[in-house]
Inverse folding.
């Protein structure tokens, strides 16, 4: 059976648009882009200073993205990883190599909106060069079936003075089974911000590990998560920061809301310092939506469920 | 417009409100003054119908209708709202969104202008701890404007803010009245209470004196500010 790629590309672009993506950016020449469905690269656009290598595997794609030294990429680079079929497995092995003094922003969309039983493995390595800057926002669109099994794993290294901002967002559709595992090593004067936002429903199971190793002097990092769990959903967040060098600053900020009698949340901040000039802090809050917030909105005329939606929308934005 | 008849409320074996009778007319500012712990915030919660705050005895009427058993939302829909002493914070919600909770009422821009805040500077701010106490209190008042209530309960609108904001807030309270909203102004400050058309003095869960602003506030200054009369006030001092 042969598949028409252009048709697939259109379908992805269609979903991409529906889910709030700028679908024109997938076609124009100003934006770097890479569009993958199953194990096929449907489209790719390299721009000046950025190179994309890829290789199809049996169940996925191997990708390497290089940004050259000193190059500041002006427009966001669009990445789209989709699985249009209802069933299957997709493995993405990616490497991001960001050269010294370079700067780049990635906008990734992961689309599993037809999923009945989809496994998605995302294994990434990120190397951010000296004084380089990378931003990576990943937004997921899942089906309502709960049959998504998603395992994003990231290992990163931020060199001296480098900066990394990473955001993972899954608020549309069911989280299903989700296991996030991020660990970053930071050299001196580097900074890193990890942010995870997830809405769990029904019997979704969510595991998050955000881990930062502040290895160089003055390295700074935050591991922040906002998880809302309704029905019987379960969430387990581990925010881990090690202050291994002098003047490092770290902060774990975890907020999980349980709404519904069957929902369960666990949060474990794990912080340590190996240098007396390091400072690592944490705040974790688990619980129902604040009574005062709810009652304030109800006093303005919202019904309780409308008030809950309003609060959750802000928290997961 | 609002009437409380013999409202009692307590927790455990402690009685906090001990038979409150109170009437507020249309387009009126009614101050409630009392020192800390006399039951002012509890009274606000009882009128708004917050969870856990149902009178153990007595009834509450609004526009002739018995609202004692109505939910917060139902009361709000009839036109009652409350501004808390310390307003809640809302992560990720902009001022503009916060002031657009209900459509078709006062526009966010106008609501901000009514409380003396420049819309250009505030509409896109987030309603969380990045706002100062004074800013947050004013935005709360703007939020009240945005739903155009018939009655607003203001719990200590002057607490936790600077003097300049207090002057502004007094003006805002008068604006409510001009726009046809009655105000139940809860305060422990004599100066703030004077904004009212009439004042009621709350002591130990009871209204012990009410009426003329000058009379009641003077009485408050003389006997209540450094109060050691709880329980004996009625017998010894009131005549
Ligand atoms: N939830 C509660 N449980 C027990 N006691 C309470 C509760 N809320 C208020 N109180 C008590 O009731 C009294 C009145 O409190 P409050 O209404 O907050 O007074 P005010 O606002 O005038 O300072 C105080 O003695 C306070 O300690
Ligand atoms: Mg109070």
């Amino acid at each position: 059976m042969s598949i028409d790629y252009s048709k697939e590309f259109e379908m992805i672009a269609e979903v991409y648009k529906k889910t709030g993506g700028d679908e024109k950016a997938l076609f124009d020449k100003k934006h770097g882009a890479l569009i993958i469905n199953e194990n096929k690269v449907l489209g790719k656009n390299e721009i000046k200073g950025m190179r994309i290598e890829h290789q199809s595997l049996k169940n996925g794609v191997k990708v390497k993205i290089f940004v050259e030294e000193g190059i500041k990429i002006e427009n966001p680079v669009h990445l789209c990883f989709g699985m249009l079929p209802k069933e299957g497995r997709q493995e993405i092995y990616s490497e991001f190599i960001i050269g010294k003094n370079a700067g780049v922003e990635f906008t990734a969309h992961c689309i599993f909106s037809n999923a009945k039983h989809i496994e998605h493995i995302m294994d990434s390595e990120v190397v951010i060069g000296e004084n380089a800057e990378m931003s990576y926002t990943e937004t997921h669109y899942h089906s309502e079936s709960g049959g998504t099994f998603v395992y994003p794993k990231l290992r990163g290294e931020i060199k001296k003075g480098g900066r990394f901002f990473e955001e993972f967002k899954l608020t549309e559709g069911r989280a299903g089974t989700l296991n996030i595992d991020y660990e970053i090593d930071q050299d001196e004067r580097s900074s890193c911000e990890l942010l995870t936002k997830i809405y769990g429903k029904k019997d979704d199971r969510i595991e998050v590990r955000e881990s930062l190793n502040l290895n160089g002097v003055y390295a700074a990092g935050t591991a922040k998560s906002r998880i809302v769990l309704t029905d019987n959903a379960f969430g387990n967040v581990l925010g881990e920061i090690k202050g291994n060098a002098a003047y490092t600053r770290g902060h774990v900020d975890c907020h999980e809301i349980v709404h519904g009698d069957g929902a369960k949340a666990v949060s474990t901040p794990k912080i340590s310092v190996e240098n007396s000039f390091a400072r690592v802090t944490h705040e974790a809050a688990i619980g129902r939506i604040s009574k005062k917030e709810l009652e304030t909105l109800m006093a303005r005329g919202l019904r309780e469920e409308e008030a809950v939606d309003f609060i959750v929308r802000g928290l997961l934005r | 417009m609002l009437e409380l008849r013999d409202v009692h409320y307590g927790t455990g074996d402690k009685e906090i409100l001990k038979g409150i009778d109170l009437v507020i007319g249309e387009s009126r500012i009614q101050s409630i003054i009392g020192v800390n712990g006399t039951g002012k915030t509890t009274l606000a919660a009882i009128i708004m119908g917050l969870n856990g705050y149902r009178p153990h005895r007595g009834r509450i009427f609004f526009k002739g209708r018995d609202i004692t058993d109505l939910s917060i939302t139902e009361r709000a829909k009839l036109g009652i709202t409350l501004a808390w002493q310390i307003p809640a914070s809302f992560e990720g919600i902009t001022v503009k969104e916060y002031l657009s909770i209900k459509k078709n009422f006062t526009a966010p821009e106008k609501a901000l202008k009514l409380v003396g805040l420049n819309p250009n500077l505030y509409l896109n701010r987030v309603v969380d701890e990045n706002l100062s106490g004074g800013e947050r209190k004013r935005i709360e008042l703007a939020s009240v404007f945005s739903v155009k209530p018939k009655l607003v309960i203001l719990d200590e609108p002057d607490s936790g803010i600077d003097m300049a904001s207090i002057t502004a807030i007094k003006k805002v309270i008068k604006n409510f009245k001009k726009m046809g909203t009655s105000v139940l102004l809860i305060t422990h400050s004599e100066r703030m209470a004077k904004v009212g058309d009439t004042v009621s003095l709350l002591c130990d869960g009871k209204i012990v004196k009410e009426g003329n602003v000058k009379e009641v506030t003077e009485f408050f200054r003389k006997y209540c500010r450094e109060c050691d009369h709880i329980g004996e006030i009625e017998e010894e001092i009131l005549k």
In short: The interface with chain A takes residues 48, 50-51, 71-73, 75-77, 80-82, 84, 87-93, 97, 101-102, 143, 146-147 of chain B (CB under 8 Å). The first strand of chain B starts at residue 2 and ends at 11.
